[in-house]
């Protein structure tokens, strides 16, 4: 017997040093090769999930599954490594069938193994959801972009629930059927405790089936307006026009009046132009006619005829009502068309030598009493805003 064999035959904590060497070697191999094994397994599975017409990028597939497979591989090597060791007899530990350290370690390992497999399955769900999202991006209906994230979350939640019941049944040997039946007894209490969450969950189904909006639509609910980015179980993510990111409960979206701005075919512009009180009637008619013609000729307002009418006598102006519709749902394009029309109105008013009115006040002072020799005051007017 060589010196090395005698050294390896020495015992420590109820195991020979040879067993500890095997433990360290197996664990070291697992740590060094876990990434290699995870990549190989991912590439092998890639050949089963890639599409026939459109190939899935293998790098994206590996990126999603590499870490879960690394953990799963490490757990397998941990089992092989610890299988080389035995607990010392002197510790007098209870068997695996009885409660004790052995049982805790065994059940803990089983739980970690099940959770590792669950993690892998969740990553598969993420991968297939990305593929459906990529295909939905080129689909005609934008509703697919909304259904894919929702059902991805639904399947993931069901997967986690199934894994929890699997752990209770396989690891702790509980009667899952009786447990599920027992949940019905406490279901009322759970429903009352999760009342808000359940309301938002049912509201999410209402949103999907009633379809007041889909992901990508611009909506306005109360004081909130923005673009819908994602509809989830409990809430909807909205990117506001100020570029902030809001999370709005789904119940709020169905309980209030919702304006789908994307469904607008037209945007309305309505304002009043005030001309001075001394503007002749003929000039007022000519200005109104030219503004009406400018509205009809503009390419952005041809769908609906514009309205320009002498609306009312103001306190210091003759008011023309201007109303027209811009054929766009985009806010930026609407503002650009409105700006062009505003510049054109200024040109028309100046062309007819008319003037825009501003708030004025006329004061009448009585003349001096007879025989005083003073000069009477003349009425005058001035801008009431700038008056001292």
List the helices and strands and how they pair.
Elements: H1 3-8, E1 11-12, E2 15-16, H2 17-49, H3 58-82, H4 101-136, H5 143-171, H6 176-185, H7 187-193, H8 195-210, E3 218-221, E4 224-231, E5 235-240, E6 245-249, H9 250-255, E7 258-260, E8 267-275, H10 281-297, E9 307-313, E10 318-326, H11 331-351, E11 360-363, E12 380-383
Antiparallel strand pairs: 1-2, 3-4, 3-7, 4-5, 5-6, 8-10, 9-10, 11-12
- Work out the number of β strands: 12
Distance between the termini: 117 Å
**Largest sheet: number of strands, sense, barrel closure:** 5 strands, antiparallel
Number of distinct helices: 11
Tell me the radius of gyration. Answer: 39 Å
Sequence of secondary-structure elements: HEEHHHHHHHEEEEHEEHEEHEE
Mean pLDDT across the residues is 81
Shape: elongated
Concise synopsis of the structure shown:
This protein has 388 residues and is of the alpha+beta class. The protein folds into 3 domains: 3-87 and 95-193, no CATH class; 212-263, SH3 type barrels, CATH 2.30.30.60; 267-360, 2-Layer Sandwich (Alpha-Beta Plaits). The protein has helices spanning 3-8, 17-49, 58-82, 101-136, 143-171, 176-185, 187-193, 195-210, 250-255, 281-297, 331-351; strands at 11-12, 15-16, 218-221, 224-231, 235-240, 245-249, 258-260, 267-275, 307-313, 318-326, 360-363, 380-383.
């Amino acid at each position: 017997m060589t010196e090395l064999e005698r050294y390896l035959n020495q015992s420590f904590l109820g195991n020979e040093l040879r067993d500890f060497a095997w433990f360290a070697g197996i664990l070291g191999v697992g740590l060094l090769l876990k990434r290699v094994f995870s990549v190989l397994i991912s590439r092998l599975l890639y050949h089963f999930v890639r599409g026939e017409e459109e190939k899935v990028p293998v790098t994206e597939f590996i990126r999603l599954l590499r870490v879960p497979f690394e953990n799963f591989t490490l757990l397998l090597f941990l089992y092989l490594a610890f299988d080389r060791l035995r607990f010392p007899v002197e510790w007098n530990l209870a068997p695996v069938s009885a409660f004790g350290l052995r049982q805790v370690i065994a059940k803990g390992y089983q739980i970690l193994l099940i959770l590792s497999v669950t993690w892998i399955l969740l990553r598969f769900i993420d991968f297939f959801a990305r593929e459906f999202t990529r295909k939905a991006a080129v689909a005609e209906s934008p509703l697919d972009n909304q259904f894919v994230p929702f059902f991805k979350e639904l399947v993931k939640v069901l997967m986690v629930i199934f894994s929890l019941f699997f752990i209770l049944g396989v690891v702790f040997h509980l009667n899952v059927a009786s447990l599920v039946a027992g949940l019905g007894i406490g279901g009322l209490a759970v429903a009352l405790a999760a009342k808000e969450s359940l309301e938002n969950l049912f509201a999410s189904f209402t949103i999907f089936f009633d379809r007041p909006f889909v992901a990508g639509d611009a909506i306005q609910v109360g004081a909130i307006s923005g673009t819908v980015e994602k509809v989830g179980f409990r809430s909807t993510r909205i990117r506001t026009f100020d570029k902030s990111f809001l999370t709005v409960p789904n119940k709020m979206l169905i309980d209030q009046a919702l304006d789908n701005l994307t469904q607008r075919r037209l945007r309305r512009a309505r304002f009043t132009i005030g001309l001075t009180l001394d503007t002749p009637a003929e000039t007022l008619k000519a200005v109104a006619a030219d503004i009406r013609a400018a509205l009809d000729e503009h390419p952005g307002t041809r769908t609906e005829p514009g309205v320009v009418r002498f609306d009312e006598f103001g306190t210091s102006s003759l008011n023309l009502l201007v109303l027209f519709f811009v054929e766009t749902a985009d806010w930026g394009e609407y503002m650009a068309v409105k700006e062009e029309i505003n510049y054109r109105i200024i040109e028309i008013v100046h062309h007819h030598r008319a003037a825009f009115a501003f708030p004025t006040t006329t004061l009448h002072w009585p003349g001096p009493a007879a025989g005083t020799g003073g000069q009477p005051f003349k009425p005058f007017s001035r801008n009431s805003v700038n008056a001292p």
